[in-house]
Task: structure prediction
Amino acid sequence: MQEELLRTFNILSRLNDSCREKVISQEELDEQDSNLDDFRKMVIELRDILSKLENSNTQSVDETVEILLQLHLKFSDYIWHTDQIHELLKKMAGNYRDSY
Result:
């Protein structure tokens, strides 16, 4: 999914460049670029948490619950990052025709 988010961002940026009136501001593009850097790091953290969960001692309920909560938080982050790209996509889809 990481590659798809990056590709989507690059396509939206390219489409935005082709518009006579920019649909997405430079500030929004810069912020999303930074978010994608954070997303890359988050994916690594997500993989680490999954590895911990796979290798955890299921006899330790507290440890398992703690790791599950970490996983929950990472999935919340994952959803947020996906939603940020989705918001840019909706903005472009709704305004591209008038701005081209």
